[in-house]
Amino acid sequence: QHEVDVIAQKAEKHFMVECKFHSDQGRRCDVKIPLYIQSRFKDVEAAWLQKQGHGNKFHQGWVATNTRFTTDAIEYGKCMDLYLLSWDYPHNQSLKHWIDETGAHPITCLTTLSGKDKQALLDQGIVLCRQLCDKPGFLDQLALSESRKRKVMEEAEGVCNILQS
User: Fold this and answer.
1) Residue 62 CB burial class (10 angstroms; 0-12, 13-18, ≥19)
2) Cis preceding linkage at 90, omega within 30
3) C-alpha to C-alpha distance for 17 and 37, rounded to whole angstroms
4) Please, what are the domains in the chain?
5) CA separation (Å) from 125 to 111, 135, 143?
6) 41: helix, coil or strand?
7) Mind listing the pLDDT tens digit for each residue in 91-134?
8) Residue 102: its H or E element
């Protein structure tokens, strides 16, 4: 029995996604990460294949991280058909690309909010900067001075306007 971060299913496709978050942006996921996750995926896939009707379905493991993969990790992922998703990989399908293309900048990128403030917004269902730009009244729930609210909104609007420049 394994704990899995995300199980996704679309039509005849099943995906097991492990998410690796690192607060140190300089950190890289080396080959040990996909190696370990591939092993777990194979265990989960074996259990899936025992279920009626799963034998014909497509199964794939994924590793998603907010940092980067080493070259060895990427090569291993390719060899094992383990999908790797990171800040800058794969080219034109990376997290950075998806965020820039969709404007889905998370409020966690805002430096003018404390961790506690970010959590309070997340608890209210505010996940994206554009949600804050659309409804700045959500900041009223936080114990922020008017000056600080202005700074937060300036930063959020700046992040959202990146797409329009």
Assistant:
1) buried
2) yes
3) 9
4) 6-102 (3.40.1350.10), 107-164 (1.10.150)
5) 19, 12, 18
6) helix
7) 999 999 999 888 899 999 999 999 999 999 999 999 999 999 99
8) helix 95-102
Q: For residue 47, what is the DSSP state?
A: H
* Residue found under tokens 């969709």: 102
| Burial annotation 127-137 (CB, 10 A radius, 16+ → b, else e) | bbbbbbbeeee
Q: Phi and psi for 61 in degrees, rounded to 5? A: -95, 145
Length of the chain: 165
Token match 């978050």: residue? Answer: 21
- Here the tokens at position 43 are 């265990």
pTM of the model: 0.77
Match 């991280």 to its residue by tokens.
65
Q: Name the region of 125 (left: φ>0; alpha: ψ -120 to 50; beta: rest).
A: left
